Amino acid sequence: MNAQTELLQASGPAGSLEVAVDRPAGVAKGTAVIAHPHPLFGGTMNNKVVQTLARAFVQCGWASVRFNFRGVGASAGVHDEGRGELDDLLAVVDSLAPEGRLCLAGFSFGAFVTSHAVERLHAQRTLEKVVLVGTAASRFHVASVPEELHQLTLVIHGEQDDTVPLSSVMDWARPQTLPVLVVPAGGHFFHGQLPLLRDLVTRHLGE
C-alpha cells in the first residue's frame, strides 16, 4: 500500500499465509484485521476496497493487517469455500493480534468470512468495531451480528451493486434490525467513490 507496508508470513492451518501490515504514526490503538473478496474471482489483499479500509483504520490510529487467504498470492493451500478461510482469518488474529484491542473488517466474500469470525470471537474477547462492506449475502450464509455489537458494526452497501443485490443484504439485515448504510449509485467495487467509503469508515471509527 505504501513504502512503510511491512510484509510478513503468518502460520496458518494450511501453511504459511502472506500478510501486509500498515501502522499509524505513534502508538497504535490496536489492530484491525481485514479480509479480502473472493479468491476465485481475483480477490486479494491488494484489492482497492480492502486497501481503502486499511487506510481508514491507519488514519484513525489502528494498525491494519491485510492477508491473502489460502491459495492466493504467496499463501499456501487451496480455496475451501469459506470454511478454511475462516480458519485463516482466526489464525492471523491469533498470530498478529492475540491480545489488545481488535477490530474486524471484510469486503464481499471477506465480509461473509468476517461475520463468522465475529460470531466465533465474540464470546472470547472484546471487539471494538466491525466493518462489513459489500457483504456477499446473496451467495453465502452470512452469520448474524450479535445484538450487543450492532452499535459497533458498520454495514455499507452500494445501491446499484450488481454482484450482490442490495435486496439480499436487506433480507439478511431485516430480521436482526441491523442498519445498513446505502451509498447512492454505488456499485460493488465503489468505483469513483472510494474516498467516500474511506470517510464513512473513519467516521464510524471515530464514534
Mind explaining what this structure looks like?
The chain is of the alpha/beta class and 207 residues long. The chain has a single domain (6-206), classed as Alpha/Beta hydrolase fold, catalytic domain (Rossmann fold, 3-Layer(aba) Sandwich), CATH 3.40.50.1820. It has five helices and eight strands; from the N terminus they run βββαβαβαββαβα. It has helices spanning 48-59, 83-96, 109-121, 166-173, 194-206, and strands at 6-12, 15-22, 31-35, 63-67, 102-107, 129-133, 153-158, 181-183. Strands 1-2-4-3-5-6-7-8 form an eight-stranded mixed sheet, sandwiched between helices. α4 (166-173) links the parallel β7 and β8 (181-183). α1 packs parallel to α5 (194-206) and α2 (83-96) crosses α3. The longest helix has 14 residues, at 83-96. The model has no long low-confidence stretch (mean pLDDT 97).
Properties at a glance:
207 residues; Rossmann fold; eight-stranded mixed β-sheet; 5 helices
